Automatic annotation (TrEMBL):
Location of the Rieske domain: 16-112
PROSITE patterns hit by this protein: RIESKE
CDD domains: Rieske (cd03467)
Signal peptide: none
Native organism: Methylobacterium iners
Keywords noted in UniProt: 2Fe-2S, Iron, Iron-sulfur, Metal-binding
Annotated protein name in UniProt: Rieske domain-containing protein
Domain of life: Bacteria
Keyword Hydrolase: no
């Protein structure tokens, strides 16, 4: 065996990806970004910043053309909205929740937590 074996604790430790400076969003509330091969959007609602998949889970609309208000992201195609706390869709719609990914703002910039959902996205 070469090298040190990976323990369960180490395997479960999340990896972080540097997105850019803390002011990356500028004056925008929604910004398209690419992380690896994944198309995502960076979102700001008030002082909270998060990331989400870019395609609407309903029919694939480009959510970077949507808007954020009152803790929700509004799809530009059908005006369904997603709760930015958990990705759940507004009442009356029957499709899966929007995938959200944690973003942390530090003095050196914005960092995205890499998790299995992000790795498995198509």
């Amino acid at each position: 065996m070469c090298g040190k074996p990976i323990s369960v604790a180490e395997a479960d430790r999340p990896a972080w990806i540097y997105l850019g400076p803390a002011d990356l969003l500028g004056e925008r509330d929604v910004l398209p970004i690419v992380v690896g091969r994944q198309q995502l959007i960076l979102l700001r609602d008030g002082g909270r910043i998060s990331a989400a998949e870019r395609a609407c889970p309903h029919e694939g609309a480009d959510l970077s053309l949507g808007r954020c208000a009152a803790g929700r992201l509004f799809c530009p195609r059908h005006l369904a909205s997603f709760d930015l706390r958990d990705g759940s869709v507004s009442p009356g719609w029957r499709f899966r929740s929007l995938r959200l990914f944690p973003v942390v703002s530090t003095p050196d910039g914005l960092w995205l937590e890499m998790d299995e959902d992000l790795l498995l996205m198509k």
